[in-house]
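We close this part of the discussion by returning to an individual protein. The sequence in question and its structure tokens are set out directly beneath this paragraph:
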Amino acid sequence: MLETEIVATMAHLLWRRKNLATFRIAERAQQRLTQIRNAMIPMDYAASKSDKSDDFDKTFTENWRAAESKARDELGELYGLVEMGEDATLDCLIKELAVQERLDAMLDKCVRRLLFVRGLKSMSLASTSAPPERLPRPSSAA
């Protein structure tokens, strides 16, 4: 079971290394979405809202939808990476790999302990399973 898990982990890490560029592309797509939103919904737009303005809410919602639509059109299938949010960033990958590294270190420690205990057991079993040596009898001439 451990061998299968190790091979699966290796395959997963090789896939990630091969597709590392996807994380960079996802970050660029998210940055572009932010640029589109900022261009279509200026930051000072929210500051100009009056407390009882239904028109503001309607306009803001329309601008938000227009920004999302423009981003979907411009980014195409990359928009799926944007929808993944934080999960599709290098920072998230680095955090996840750090957790995996800690878990792997703990597993390695357990495997070493297990192998040590099994080694001790096999040594004690070997010594108890060997027939006891017979002492030579004293010679009858004595």
Observations:
- The chain has a mean pLDDT of 81.
- The radius of gyration is 33 Å.
- The chain is about 75% helix and 0% strand.
